[in-house]
Amino acid sequence: MTDTDVFEAQRPRLTRLAYRMLGSVAEAQDAVQDAWLRWRRAGDEVAEPAAWLVRTTTRLCIDRMRAAKSQRDAYRGPWLPEPLIEDLAVDPVERAEDVSVAFLLALERLSPLERAVFLLHDVFEEDYAEVAETLGKSEPAVRQLATRARAHVKEARPRFTVSQEDAAKLAAAFMVAAAQGDMSALSAMLAQDAVMVTDGGGKRKAALRPLIGREDIVRLMEGLAWRGADQTLSFRSVRINGYPGLIMINADGPMTVAFQPGEGGRLVGIYMVRNPDKLWHLTH
């Protein structure tokens, strides 16, 4: 097996790790490409290729996270991860709960080291000794980081399951009600404490704060309908971060909408990405 074959066999795992670390498809691909360049330079010196590649990719991601901190702090409006889009006809590549928007937002509350420890141990099932070697930390320190991270992320894990079919029906019904301006139907589909987050990155119109609660969301939808601001030229149903979702083409460009189903057949989260920097793969 050539060095290229060895690397390509690990590329999907490395990309999954990098996306969870960085919340960006483009950044994840860049980090994995950097790992490839280092892999080529390392040559035959690597005794355990898989472990070496995970270690290298993790460290590259931590460096990127630290370097991007000032940019993230200056981000205008709410931040959402770059959408991970899958066609509905394809079986999900990832477990929905491990790439869900709620889960990735929970990871954002962690430090780079906490995030790396949690993902490597709890998601990618590496033992603490391997994680400690990857991060250059002692095993007790890694265990402590994992405990702290777990406490932050616990609440983001879904406490119930909703079938893909039921979730897709709920999302479709919501969009029909929105198109018809049926605010009573919209309200009935939302959980009382539902959240709506719109990410324009300061480059396209979006709410500058998360909308919390059914009434807040319905008021925004009423305003959009009244202004005719939601004119859609075309749309396509897809799976976004494991949720039912839509790619919508509006007059001012593409956007994605992901619907997070919850208990009792209601939506608990709606996540809209309008920032063109995060939608590059929809136009290229």
TrEMBL record:
Pfam families: Sigma70_r2, Sigma70_r4_2. InterPro entries: ECF_Sigma-70_Domain, NTF2-like_dom_sf, RNA_pol_sigma-70_dom, RNA_pol_sigma70_r2, RNA_pol_sigma70_r4_t2, RNA_pol_sigma_r2, RNA_pol_sigma_r3/r4-like, WH-like_DNA-bd_sf. SUPFAM superfamilies: NTF2-like, Sigma2 domain of RNA polymerase sigma factors, Sigma3 and sigma4 domains of RNA polymerase sigma factors. Residues 102-152 form the RNA polymerase sigma factor 70 region 4 type domain. Residues 7-69 form the RNA polymerase sigma-70 region domain. PANTHER family: ECF RNA POLYMERASE SIGMA FACTOR SIGJ, SIGMA 19 FACTOR. NCBIfam families: PRK09636.1 (NF007214), sigma70-ECF (TIGR02937). Interacts transiently with the RNA polymerase catalytic core formed by RpoA, RpoB, RpoC and RpoZ (2 alpha, 1 beta, 1 beta' and 1 omega subunit) to form the RNA polymerase holoenzyme that can initiate transcription. This is RNA polymerase sigma factor SigJ. It comes from Phenylobacterium ferrooxidans. The gene is sigJ.
